[in-house]
Amino acid sequence: MPKHKPKRSAPTIDMTAMCDVAFLLLTFFMLTAKAKPQETVIVDTPSSISETKLPDAGTLTILVGKDGKIFLDMAGSHTRMSLIDDINSRYQLGLNDKEKLVFANLGSFGVPRNRLKQYIDTEPTERAKFPTEGIPVDTADINKSELADWVHNARLAQFRMKNEGKVKEEYVIVVKADKDTPYPAVQSVINTLTDINVNKFNLITSMEGAKKEEK
Predict the structure, then answer these.
(1) In the prediction, which pLDDT does 50 show?
(2) Cα 52 from Cα 55, distance rounded (Å)
(3) Within a domain: residue 98?
(4) What pLDDT was estimated at residue 192?
(5) Domain range spanning residue 150?
(6) Is residue 159 part of a domain?
(7) What is the pLDDT of residue 80?
C-alpha cells in the first residue's frame, strides 16, 4: 500500500515581534542620545610616533589654539556640576540652576570668569560667534591665573565625585595644542600645571609620523 506523503509548504516566520523590538530600541536611542557639543576651537595636533592611548573618559583637556588662546574641557557632568557650584559660590557669578545645568553639559569653553554667565546664556547656535578671549593665564602670580584655578578646582571636584562613587578614576590631564601654536603659549600652560603640582600630564599628537615611517 503506497505511503501517504503530507503536502509540504514553506515555513513562515512572524517578524512582527522583532520589528516591534527594533523600533522600540531605535526610539529609545533617539530619545536618550545626546549630541556632542560643538568644538569651540579646532586644533590640528602635531604628529609623533607615540602609541600611548588615552582613556575614553575621565580626561581634563587644555586646548591651545594656533593663536595661543586657551580653552578648557572636562569629562563628566557630575563633576562639572560640582565644579560650577563651587566656582559660582566663590566668585559670585550669579548663575542659576538652569545655567549651571547648561555648563554641566557644555563642551569646551574659553572665556574669562566674568564673561562666563554671558557665554552660557548665549543660544547654542550663536556660541560659535561669541568673542572668545581664552582663559586668562598668569605665570607671574599663580593666584591670579584663572587657568590654574579652573584646573585645581576641577581636580578637587573629580576627587569628590570619586569618593561618592560617581566616577571611577581621577582626572587624566591632557594638553592639546595646535601644531602652529607659538611655543610660549604651550610653555605657559606647562608652567601653570607645574606651579599647581601637576607634574604628570599628556601631550596629544596624531599618528601621522608613525604612518610615514611605516611606508
Answers:
(1) 55
(2) 10
(3) yes
(4) 93
(5) 59-214
(6) yes
(7) 94
Q: Name the domain count of the chain.
A: 1
Distances (CA, A) of 20 to 28, 29, 135: 12, 14, 50
CA dihedral in degrees (69, 133, 112, 55; nearest 10)?
Answer: -40
132 contacts 69 by C-beta, under 8 angstroms: yes
> What pLDDT sits at residue 84?
95
Evaluate whether residue 12 is within a structural domain. Answer: no
Tell me, yes or no, if the pTM score tops 0.90.
Answer: no
Sign of CA dihedral 27, 31, 32, 34: positive
Complete edge-to-edge strand list for the sheet that includes strand 172-177: 70-74, 59-64, 172-177, 202-203
The whole-number mean pLDDT for each consecutive block of 10 residues of the chain, a chain of 215 residues, reads 62 70 74 58 57 71 91 91 94 94 91 94 87 88 91 93 88 88 90 91 67 44
Q: Annotate the chain with DSSP letters as a single string.
A: -PPPPPPP-------HHHHHHHHHHHHHHHHH--PPPPPSS---PPB----PPPPSSSEEEEEE-TTS-EEEEE--HHHHHHHHHHHHHHHT----HHHHHHHHT---B---GGGHHHHHHS-GGGGGGS--------SS-GGG-HHHHHHHHHHHHHHHHHHTTS-SSPPEEEEEE-TTS-HHHHHHHHHHHHHTT----EE--BSHHHHHHH-
Q: Long-range contacts of range 17-20, CB-CB < 8 Å, 24 or more positions apart?
A: none
Would residue 7 count as lying in a domain?
Answer: no
